[in-house]
Amino acid sequence: MRNKLVVGNWKMHGNMAENKQLLDSIVAAINDLHTKAQFAVCVPYPYLSSVQTTLRGTSIHWGAQNLSQFDKGAYTGEVSSGMLNDFACDYVIVGHSERRALYGETNEIVAEKYMAAQRAGITPILCVGETLEQRESGVTEKIIDEQLNAVIKLAGIESFTKAVIAYEPVWAIGTGKTASPQQAQDVHVFIRKKIASQGSDIAKDLSILYGGSVKANNAKELFTMPDIDGGLIGGASLVADDFVAICRAASH
Ligand code: PEP
After folding, report:
1. CATH number for the 5-250 domain, one of 3.20.20.70, 3.90.79.10, 3.40.50.2000, 2.60.120.260?
2. Cα–Cα distance measured from residue 56 to residue 94, given in angstroms and rounded to the nearest whole number
3. Where do the structural domains in the chain lie, given as residue ranges?
4. Are 129 and 160 in contact (CB under 8 A)?
5. Looking at ligand 1, which residue's alpha carbon is closest to its atom 7?
6. Which residues of the chain have pLDDT under 50?
7. From CA 222, how far away is CA 57, in angstroms rounded?
8. CB distance 230 to ligand 1 below 6 Å
């Protein structure tokens, strides 16, 4: 049985004072929610320590938004999975479309980062999704197939017992255009069937999140679709009331 998971992706937003205020409000509203749903925030590296201090002992998990594929070495500016472990990260986002588009992360690099996270015992949240152009030219499934194949080839199908997938159509991220619940459900089914073709039990237990302009007013209808196991939330995760409403929508 899969439990719902809602993860906030703060991207490059926040500062010490705002983060504390945001997290204090979220903790006050959802820490005592009696639910099997899980909640997490993925925050910029410099705030991992203070976020850990604020969230330790609460029901809210934390993680990072990226990591190096390498364990150590002369990689100026990079952060390894071992370093994330020093801050007890439960999750790390890998292959977010912004990383793929702006920083040249290929399917192969994303697969290496996924492996690096798992080597350190951190659950990767593997982002996949198509651009608007790709959707309009009818290659959505082909693109997602290729994104998943790179990871399956390197890490093996068994690795999905310790991973989360986030389906994030690029055209829906930060644009206010949400995929309809049925559009998202269709792609989630495609992903689950693909994993099932190599491991049916693994596919049944795999959490597949939807991401792309999830808001307080559309979360519920997305989360009621049978293969949508929660959400990866960008903009709305920066507003306590909105994030809390989305977490509540996952809790019923
Ligand atoms: C994201 O950054 O992963 C995301 C889904 O952003 P937004 O919710 O703002 O579309």
Report:
1. 3.20.20.70
2. 23
3. 5-250
4. no
5. 234
6. none
7. 30
8. no
Provide the pLDDT for residue 252: 73
CB of 111 closer than 6 angstroms to any ligand 1 atom? no
**What tokens appear for 80 in the block?**
């390894």
Cα–Cα distance list, 72 to 54, 75, 78, 83 (Å): 28, 8, 9, 10
Check residue 32 and give its pLDDT: 85
- Outline where the chain has alpha helix (H): 16-30, 48-55, 81-85, 97-102, 107-119, 132-136, 140-155, 181-196, 200-205, 219-223, 240-249
Query: For residue 13, what pLDDT is reported?
Result: 98
Give, rounded to a whole angstrom, the gap between the first and last alpha carbons of the chain: 15
What sign has the CA pseudo-torsion 116, 119, 124, 128?
Answer: positive
Q: What is the DSSP letter of 216?
A: T
In this prediction, residue 172 carries a pLDDT of 95
* Both tokens assigned to 49: 């320590």
CB distance 227 to 219 below 8 Å: no
Q: Which residue has the tokens 């590296």?
A: 45
Q: Which residue, by CA, sits nearest to atom 4 of ligand 1?
A: 234
Q: What is the pLDDT of residue 1?
A: 75
Q: Round to whole Å and give the CA distance between 26 and 6.
A: 13
Q: Which of 96, 98, 105, 130 is an active site residue?
A: 96
Contact 205, 161 (CB under 8 A): yes
| Assigned token pair, 136 | 């309009």
The predicted structure's pLDDT at residue 138: 97
